[in-house]
Amino acid sequence: MPAKKLAQPERAHRLESQQRRLTGFKIEGSLEPADRLIDLIVQQYEENRVYHVDLHKCPSKEQEVLSQGSKEDRNITIDALGTVRVKGKDAKLEADLASDLLLRNAFTRRALAYDQANLVDFVKLNSWTERLLQSRLVDPPPGYARITQNQIIQADRKLWVKIAELTRDGVQVRATGRPIDLIFDRATEHPDVLHLLQPLPAAPSQQGKGDHKGDHKGNDFRFAPYRTDGRKGRKGKGKGTGASSVRMPAALEGGGRAFYAGGYRKGGIFGLRKRTVPSVPFTSIAVLDGVQSGPHKVREVHGRPMR
């Protein structure tokens, strides 16, 4: 059911009264909430229950005014008195949340609308906004990522779930004050809300992944196999038993060159790879040139003892 629209004199009175209370805060431009947003939240007061309003549904008055020229789905309706009316569906408006600044503006517009509807004090909602956005600036522990925009949006959604749970007996003003104001701090400190603002483990670094093609995938780098019976390999072009030529990495200045790989044999096919399947018999091959170390025995490779 569409929200009941406030009369223009009442709308102007609410804004004027709010501006007088919030000294030093100018409600205009991108911070002034759209009429449809205020109507939507005033409806919550009339229904005596609260629910979450998505930030995408919190456009500015400026955005609303500029979109009034476009109407969709005009149709003719006849009311109970037989009066014919031509109505048009308002163009869909969505707030832009592409940056933290735009997200903050959407939070602010929604807080102002809740304050105008006499449901929640603007100061409380604004402090919650500051707390959410401040969490984005905190340096995470090592191995963890910064708080994302999606995390603070999810935490805000959970907050309104808790507010609804704590105000089941209604949200309209009483002699003791506004019900949401009385439980707001308790809702913001609820574990279900706070755990959504914890840093998450950072994604593992994509090491070992180059622009290899074919069989060259990450650490499973493998040279083309060759057979000893004179036949071609799976994709080889040469014949015979000679070893395929391998281009060694460029040597560092003043140093030697070295190349290590695991060798394997399976089904009459021989080849090399950096990582070998444990069940496949293999040996090791090392090609050294100009190294400074003396002869020594390798006891283990990749944590596995050499036999």
Describe what you observe in this structure.
The protein has 307 residues and is an alpha+beta fold. The protein folds into 2 domains: 8-71 and 87-197, no CATH class; 226-305, no CATH class. Helix content is 32%, strand content 14%. The chain is built from 8 helices and 8 strands, in the order H-H-H-E-E-H-H-H-H-H-E-E-E-E-E-E. It has helices at 8-21, 35-47, 61-67, 100-116, 122-135, 149-166, 179-188, 191-194, and strands at residues 71-78, 84-90, 226-227, 257-266, 269-273, 282-289, 300-301, 304-305. A 4-stranded antiparallel beta sheet has the order 3-5-4-6, with no helix packed on it. A hairpin with a 2-residue loop joins strand 4 and strand 5 (269-273). Helix 2 crosses helix 4 and helix 4 (100-116) packs antiparallel against helix 5. The radius of gyration is 34 Å and the shape is elongated. The N and C termini lie far apart (78 Å). Residues 209-220 have a biased composition (Basic and acidic residues). Residues 201-247 are annotated as: Disordered.
